[in-house]
Amino acid sequence: SRKEEVTIIRSKFPNKVPIIVERFYKELYLPRLDKTKFLVPQEITMSQFVSIIRNRMQLGSTQAFYLLVNNRSMLSLSKTLAEVYNEYRADDGFLYLTYASQEVFGCCEGGT
């Protein structure tokens, strides 16, 4: 089970956060990731993790990209993954993040 998987992962890598990153179910523009499970150092910030995911998808700098926790909350990019994990991890021990674009942003604001 995922719960057992997290127990093993956390015992081997206590300073890393097990994360599952999935595409928002209504997402039309962003590509699917080639993998969904990540084991990330707990001290990195959400901003750094967003950069990792953006790079993995080879997104351009103007492509809007948002990471949501529990399909709803946008997180402060200055929070560490340890803080986010402690606050939002699921019962099975994984932190579930969903990514989405919001096409409204960046399309009509002069390239920003």
TrEMBL record:
The keyword Membrane applies. A lipid is attached at G106 (Phosphatidylserine amidated glycine). It is found in: Cytoplasmic vesicle, Autophagosome; Endomembrane system. It comes from the Eukaryota. Keywords: Autophagy, Cytoplasm, Cytoplasmic vesicle, Lipoprotein, Membrane. GO terms for biological process: macroautophagy; response to stress. It is a lipid-anchor. This is Microtubule-associated protein 1 light chain 3 gamma. It comes from Timema bartmani. The lineage of its organism: Eukaryota, Metazoa, Ecdysozoa, Arthropoda, Hexapoda.
